[in-house]
């Protein structure tokens, strides 16, 4: 008989990312405090790892025994991390960044140029038109 996991949803799915919600649905968890018993497979463990902060996991020998047991399962991470080689485009980007860093280091600092003209802006003449005085108007309520 394969080993089984009892998974209980302890937290609400409000405010989760769409992928986390899909994982909960894939596990068969729709409501808080709902329990499901699933076979202990790598796919189920991967889905549980995505939402481990929301669920309570324990080993279950059978459905009846699972109802009375407390959580005792430890999630074990993979033994060795997967390392991949960068793709061709990533290599090009890394080489370009290194070349730009070399160019920046090779350039000498330029001396600051002195300004020949004064920094004060020239005053310009502006002719402002005088605003016409506003006419007094009476409201419709004031007239009879």
What attributes does this structure have?
Ribosomal Protein L30, Chain: A; flat; about 10% strand; 3 strands; alpha+beta
The gist of it:
The chain has 144 residues and is α+β, with helices and mostly antiparallel strands.
What is the name of the CATH topology of the domain at 4-68? Ribosomal Protein L30, Chain: A
Looking at the structure, what is the overall shape? Answer: flat
User: Which sequence of SSEs, written as H and E, runs from N to C?
Assistant: EHEHEHH
What is the CATH C-level name of the domain at 4-68?
Alpha Beta
Helix content: 25-40%
Characterise the protein shown here.
This protein has 144 residues and is an alpha+beta fold. The chain has a domain at 4-68: 2-Layer Sandwich (Ribosomal Protein L30, Chain: A). The protein contains four helices and three strands. It has a three-stranded antiparallel sheet with strand order 2-1-3. The radius of gyration is 36 Å and the shape is flat. The relative contact order is 0.12.
Describe the secondary structure blueprint for this structure:
Elements: E1 4-9, H1 18-27, E2 35-39, H2 42-50, E3 55-60, H3 63-68, H4 88-106
Antiparallel strand pairs: 1-2, 1-3
Helix pairs in contact: 1-2
